[in-house]
């Protein structure tokens, strides 16, 4: 195996982005565009644009985007935008579910015998995919899931064992890790995906029982946000502005 081939088997150079959701909770922003085409206020760039920049910066050269709802809007933007990597789009003729959508898109990856990244199309994040893929390789995992610890949207109250209030904590980190919607998959994983349905209810539980599913915690301080609602857009813009001022 050449050095380039060894590198590719540790650090993937191809990825799938799931961009077919309707984004009903983001209406009216998604009335005329798919969810990944919603712009982050103050950036002039849609969510998918931020994702492609991030993937390219992490060494990805080829991306397959799985489209669905208002696919033509996304395709037009891709056709008229200077992109940092090669992009292929596939359109689901009918909803296949997340697992089926991944399998359908993965069939168009240029190097089926190599590992690949995948990400949900509504994630805006920045962390080292190279470190995540090394974590994946060290554990000889079939699949690795990025895990995030989001902040609880409510204030928390700390008490002692007698019920005395000790402190009020605004939006503390959750005690639980969640699926961050970013993955590393070994090449054999593609065949394990369902033709239709959700891989998190079929393939992942099976791999977990076999100890072939790994969980990579996004490093503390790395940026991660799922853009699900208008409030998420507002907070992402505020966080971006705060980051810019602190630099």
From TrEMBL:
Q: Which CDD domains match?
A: NTP_transferase
Name it: Nucleotidyltransferase family protein
Protein source organism: Streptomyces glaucosporus
Identify the Pfam families for this entry: NTP_transferase
Q: Which residue range or ranges hold the Nucleotidyl transferase domain?
A: 15-240
């Amino acid at each position: 195996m050449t050095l380039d081939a060894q590198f590719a088997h540790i650090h993937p150079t191809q990825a799938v982005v799931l961009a077919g959701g309707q984004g009903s909770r983001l209406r009216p922003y998604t009335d005329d565009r798919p969810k990944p085409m919603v712009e982050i206020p103050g950036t002039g760039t849609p969510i998918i644009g931020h994702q492609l920049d991030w993937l390219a910066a992490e060494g990805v050269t080829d991306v397959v985007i799985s489209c669905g709802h208002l696919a033509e809007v996304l395709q037009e933007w891709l056709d008229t935008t200077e992109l940092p990597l090669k992009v292929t789009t596939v359109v689901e003729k009918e909803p296949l579910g997340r697992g089926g959508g991944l399998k359908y898109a993965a069939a168009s990856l240029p190097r089926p015998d190599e590992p690949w990244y995948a990400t949900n199309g509504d994630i805006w994040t920045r962390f080292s995919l190279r470190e995540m893929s090394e974590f994946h390789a060290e554990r000889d995992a079939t699949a690795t899931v990025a895990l995030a610890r989001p902040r609880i949207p409510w204030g928390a109250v700390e008490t002692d064992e007698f019920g005395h209030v000790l402190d009020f904590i605004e939006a503390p980190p959750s005690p639980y890790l969640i699926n961050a919607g970013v993955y590393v998959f070994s090449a054999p994983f593609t065949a394990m995906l369902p033709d239709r349905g959700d891989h998190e209810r079929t393939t992942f539980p099976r791999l977990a029982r076999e100890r072939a599913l790994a969980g990579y915690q996004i490093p503390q301080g790395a940026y991660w946000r799922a853009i699900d609602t208008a409030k998420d857009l507002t907070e992402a813009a505020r966080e971006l502005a705060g980051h810019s001022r602190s630099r």
